[in-house]
């Protein structure tokens, strides 16, 4: 039986249990199933609907306050007033595409490039992380003349056919490309006895390159999400990347850092996931948090990588880079500066992770508490020694937190790694509330 | 020498002429070239920058009023107050994704489906027309088990790798898929002597199906933009589609109507490009005008076509269907109802096309004035009898109109068909101004 994408969600609504849902929600779900079809998943056994958001908080129709420790899109907080104001003003003034000269477009592109290492200088805007990754692959293929792509074993890079083809996380219903090879994430438990992480990652990379060569594809790109979000969350590992990238370069390929998850100060230690590694990617892609909810994404290239594609293929994205999304992106950067978001996220994240670690240190069902910046992961297992993933228990923790009105989810091949990834607006009071609730849930589920 | 995408633009800025541009614009373009690279094309030899928009009008920094007879994205008018207000309100209230229950999402999906024939019932939202078409192809392949795709000879369906692969309009820099076959658009001049359009289109379709079968791909989908925008604009032809679709169905494929251009009342005679043909597509995709500039697109499926994909693959588009884009889409439909946009567009379009026809009827350089609804096309040729495309003259007309501060462009394989495609906010006064300016330009360039 194939593993389907939906099965990788820890707590989701099962339509066969529609009768158990309270009437107003049931009516909404029935209409939803009719008009949106089976492809639209609802989070939680007991689904939730919100009517208002502010900061890291979402409110339902009864005014109940949910703490959002899951959504990375509203990076500076749900409905941040500065972003709302800037976007509303732009909406009322002008919204044209990039084929007319625009000051705001160039200003924002320059601000974005200034956040990246010097060789990354050419920006192309799009709407979604999928579009950005899709473009990055087109450019990588065009530049290298190769077809092969190396990704992690449970990677997720998006939903166009091309990037779905490099996203094993989508499950067996969605085929990988014949030109795609998967390698381990930097999970220390996967390193063979006596080895080290860097050597293991290098071996993995080398084997993939060799296999792509043997099949005549060559290596166009190594694509990594440096938070390794869907592989189980390993942002804090270090020391292995330079060797992998050197190997890929030697094979004529490029390194694409997919910063849709790790970027925009999510994992601390610099603004981007690649920052801690001392490696400068050839292409960086970014998305979700970039416009705080207004669709905006980008791929940024080393000039020599993008040149031929830019001259020979061109690329016009109707909405990408148009005035309103750009105003959203600029407003997000304003807030990052005004509120010193990266510093706050790093500080709050450290406190949150330390608190979680202290709470769960002695749990027989917690194999690891890890993470970086404002991204925390808890690996839940049947028992510590055997380390077998305990998916059912993980789901109970998520549902328990949802009862406390705190939103989290899970990741990893075993769907047993709690994914705690709040808006970067998350503050100390939010951290206190989170830890207090987790303590109660852990007392029930993790002892 | 390969034909590149950029070469298909009639009037575009040539960076080698940067010295001739006035200082403020020159500074902007220099910075733009540095940070965006060569892939970002600027419309017009003499580029333009706007600071404000309203209705079918755009204004530059000196307050000069440009008449927009080209942009289809701001369908109900640039910065329409109702859309601005609705989107701003939603932005300040809530913006979450589809994995939480949302009334607005279901309400809008139902309104959208109500605008389509009954079998088209399942909506999936995305950000761009490219994403919608990419998804439509994934679903078509999954449903049919085939790989082959049939499109028009100069079709354009978007910019992901998958849909770029079915977009010959992108030029030789961008490869078509091995599984893609191209057929003539419904251009009466392509019909062999003694034949009729319907038979010719059927022959074309049959040949493509046969060739796909011989190559082992089978036929997954026929994809048509029923305005045939990039093939030279032939929305008004009729009587040929049912036979083509029957042939595709008999081969086990589906028919995808790409309504990114023709839809939302652009071509009159019903809300969609397929409406005049009495054919109900298996999948309809839509984009550009849908959110009046907020990124929003959709693919709508017959339930039986979408079922397996929905159950086995799932599809989560982070921004597609989130609260703000949905609010934009709903506000656009409000304006369509309140201002009776389709009726106005049909009436104004008929007057515009009649006026253009009357002005240019005697021009030795105009082979045809055609179009439908608020989409007008003028085919410009060296002389009427030979009908050789006159691209240089077409560009002079476009530049002449730009001097009069009226925005139009050109389409077609010869880049010699004026593309007059204003926001549907275009009114009688706009039509008067357009015709008056065209008369002056035609006196110089088309006599």
Automatic annotation (TrEMBL), chains A, B:
Keywords, A to Z, come to: Aminotransferase, Pyridoxal phosphate, Transferase
Q: Which Gene3D superfamilies match?
A: Aspartate Aminotransferase, domain 1, Type I PLP-dependent aspartate aminotransferase-like (Major domain)
Which GO molecular function annotations are given, in alphabetical order?
A: pyridoxal phosphate binding; transaminase activity
SUPFAM superfamilies in the record, alphabetically?
Answer: PLP-dependent transferases
For the keyword Lyase, the answer is no
Domain of life assignment: Bacteria
Q: Which Pfam families match?
A: Aminotran_3
What InterPro entries does the entry give?
Answer: Aminotrans_3, Aminotrans_3_PPA_site, PyrdxlP-dep_Trfase, PyrdxlP-dep_Trfase_major, PyrdxlP-dep_Trfase_small
Q: Which family does it belong to?
A: Belongs to the class-III pyridoxal-phosphate-dependent aminotransferase family.
**This protein is called what?**
4-aminobutyrate aminotransferase-like enzyme
Which taxonomic lineage is given here? Bacteria, Bacillati, Actinomycetota, Actinomycetes, Micrococcales
